[in-house]
Amino acid sequence: MAASKVLTGARVVLPTGIVDGGRVIVDGTRIADTGTGTGTGTAPADAETYDVSGHWLVPGFVDLHNHGGGGASFSGSADDVLTAVRTHRAHGTTTLVASTVTDDMDVLTRQAGLLSELAEQGEIAGVHFEGPFISPCRKGAHSEALLRHPDPAEVRKLLDAARGHAKMVTLATELPGGLDSVRLLAEHGVIAAVGHTDATYEQTVEAIDAGATVATHLFNAMPALGHRAPGPIAALLEDERVTVELINDGVHLHQAALELAFHHAGAARVAFITDAMDAAGSGDGRYLLGPLEVEVTDGVARLVEGDSIAGSTLTLDRAFKRAVTVDGLPVQDVVAALSANPARLLGLDDRIGSLEAGKDADLVLLDEEFTLKGVLRRGEWVVGPHLG
């Protein structure tokens, strides 16, 4: 059982606003009180007390779209998956959905079985299938030879293999079977995400009406916004039913594109993701993304053949810091994009995504420059706290 803890003096970001000199009480694995009078209010006598004055306390980060880290992939063994999970936890991601990449269906179903076991153990929050049901015109770092149309029967095969732990499937919904597959996913409570798509504006509207609710890494791997042919970007930004993923690493998006997305979608409809591959938290070098070789130079991952950007080396603590210090976004909007919004999409907002009494004690401690100084997951310190 995790020891009780009291964290005092921080700027605490709550759903109702920012509290200066706030206090958070953690009792075991849950938040007991946030100093607002809505919880139990009293710390146990034997609680560990931490003076975190001069720091920020924010909810643990939730990553919807992540392929690996620490030199390991979610397409690998159970040990590989745990290495990647622990790498991202050390950067504040206390809840993570493991993303696969395009491969043979037999390989994907086997991997779905392995990942579902880890989901049952509480190590990951579920599985995201990115591919193989995507457009060869917008394949990015996916093997074109392994792509296929989104046949609902094959989509169902992946869902069955994941044993109730499939959380999201990325589709090029304009392909044959695309709309029927979106409807199938919606019926099963699985997020249908529009991505790696060559769809028109009108086709994307159809997909949203059929039940698609997420834009996979908006702007990337889809037609650019045009004034006569607005394409999927306009349809995804304008519809209140859609949450847009953004990779805020300074490589995938120009700052103006990020600002455009926040302006049109609003802070409640943005989810920052990493789209991380093995090299996140690991360094430059040669890696594999599915069956494809990737070269990482100065933190930028590109395919060895074709030079396409191949995921990222991003961690969500870096996305947070950039959003505030470079992009100039309000801290509360960034917290929404990193925690509350993805938690809501996953249907987990009764347990995670905000600092409220009764929720899991998942907290991130940041200094005044928004550098990570501590990570608490379910009441246990994963990192720190580093208060010196």
UniProtKB/TrEMBL annotation:
Gene3D superfamilies referenced in this protein's UniProt entry, alphabetically: Metal-dependent hydrolases, Urease, subunit C, domain 1
Domain Amidohydrolase-related, chain residue ranges per copy: 57-382
Alphabetical keyword list: Carbohydrate metabolism, Hydrolase, Metal-binding
InterPro entries documented for this protein: Amidohydro-rel, GlcNAc_6-P_deAcase, Metal-dep_hydrolase_composite, Metal_Hydrolase
Family designation: Belongs to the metallo-dependent hydrolases superfamily. NagA family.
Protein known as: N-acetylglucosamine-6-phosphate deacetylase
Organism, as annotated: Streptomyces similanensis
